[in-house]
Fold:
Amino acid sequence: MLPAVREVAQGRRLRWPLVVDLDPTTLCDLACPECISSGVLNQGQFSRDRITGLAHELAGSGVRAVILIGGGEPLMHRSIGTVIEVLHGAGIRIGLVTNGTLIGRYLDELASMLSWVRVSLDAATPGTYDVFRPSRRKSSVFPQIIADMRRLAERKAGRLGYSFLLMQRFDGEGRLTATNYPEVQQAGELAKDIGCDYFELKAMLDADHFTVNQAAEHTEPVEEQWSRLRKLEDESFRLLRSSNWLAVRSGSDPVQKKEYAACPVAELRTTVTPTGVYICPYHRGHEKGKLGDIAEMSFEEMWARADTTTIDPREDCRFHCARHPVNVEIGGLRHREPPEPADDFDPFI
Structure:
């Protein structure tokens, strides 16, 4: 990875990105009111021929890792098993972000071929789950997801994560009507009991990806639960907090200032969806962030034509961006000797 990062730090383009975020479909089997991807849902999916062809294109490229994500729920695409097999067979590392409802359908592939699976649950009980993650089915899918995660934990070759997005609802007068905040500790304990490798806490963002600062009466109880969870950490189980939750917890300005005019990570990682290829997931569905389309051209041709400088982070990425610390580090490589390569190479930038 380091040679590629050096190239980008010097302002040169790579023949291939190292990582591809791939949205196989924009369809989802849940109906979450707070879904931040609601604006790009239900806009179709790759045809079976195209997504299989794309998998073979990536298999023959210099791409090192593919993250199956969305948009919609990636496991809803009927060809996803074939895609996983093709990528895995080419030595490409695979990650998956999923709502977990279809883990059972692809248990063999997920257990043996993926580097990691992260399940977005955001609750510790069926009641709270159904409030924030309602299913189109007649009964709650929460018990099924937990049962399938246990089965996956028993067989997995890679890592399994339990993701918890902090969510609140308020009425027109600003009164709290629903929250999952009290279930942080219970969810963390459940994650450990399932056999997950980590439990991740994240802050809810507004529709434009900005953090929403909150009163201490809401954030402090979360931190108290987090402190109690610390006793569960060991070599096989970690607790992770997203940068956006740390920003909320510290009361940071929702606007994150950036000094660079182009995003270096955009040269290393890109987002491929049925409606186009975008500079990153933050700009998924936005015309300005669209790099091209692979409906009528190969991935290689699209990437050769792509212009990642169309987005100016100083103006277009004023939210707290998960890529910002990496961008700062890459920018600094222009003026200093790079560090020695780490032993634990991880292609998921």
Notes: The domain at 18-335 is CATH 3.20.20.70 (TIM Barrel).
